[in-house]
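Reply to dn_fold:

You asked what the input looked like. This is it:
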Amino acid sequence: MANANNAGAAAPLPPLRWPAPLVGEDLVSISDLTSDEIYFLLDLAGRVKAQPRRYQFALQGKTLALLFEKPSLRTRATFQIGMEQLGGRALYLGPEEVGLGTREAVRDVARNLSRWVDVIAARVRRHETVLELAAEARVPVINALSDVEHPCQALGDILTLLEHKRKLAGLLLAWVGDGNNVCHSLLLAASHLGVRMKIATPAGYEPAARMVTAARAAGGRIELTNDPVAAVAGADAVYTDVWTSMGQEAEAEARREIFRPFQVNTALMEKAGEQALFLHCLPARRGEEVTDEVLDSPASVTCDQAENRLHIQKALLLSLLA
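and this is what came back:
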């Protein structure tokens, strides 16, 4: 990556293949994007990553509100740092300051923030909250995580796959574990990009049927199984996530027993393709869904995923606001 501290004036912004297609829009779900829009974001993220100084004043005078109901390391840091690296400002509003739907109605928060800021990134407990924010706000709203989807994570993951594999169409991505929000966004993204997915979950923990149906309707090649070995066989990448997400703590002990056969360990990774990558959106519970040997192995690209959240979100902010 180019050194952002190099002296010298910033060069003009480089031309892109298309006009920015997302100005003024929301990103609540990966399904809000077309294939061309996803490729546009991937292209722009690569440019931003390679030459960050070219974009350092692109969003000067703009303000991003980070409206968070849940704690975060990667999502908060990458949005806040990204907005500042683009010349804008980020305002963090945690649950103590706002109290979405409790201290103040969601619609009132959306309407007021729209008078002060240029874009809202919302990390919420219920997907309905981000839907209402998007419906009521007069500025773009980004889903920074809900219980149904995590689109920014999926876009950063796709960027990571593209960097390491140099292509997307024809890749096989295996998902092992809970069919959760990250899984939903990945299978929707995969359906746009020619990436096949095999998803292995315990019975009763499959991704939502409506998400699978939507992905298949968009041309996605999605296979569901309860056998992790079958899912990873020949895979180009193996992805897992925590077995117990925030809000499911009461189920933690039961989930450990149910998901134990779905741990990604060295033996399971050996069933995948010879050059298979390991992905995890983090934070990881070492020794549960993944072993230290896999998470710390040369196959692991988890830190690349975390870094690429910064670049893809900068591309998204530029597309929505520039």
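The chain has a mean pLDDT of 93.
Hope that clears it up.
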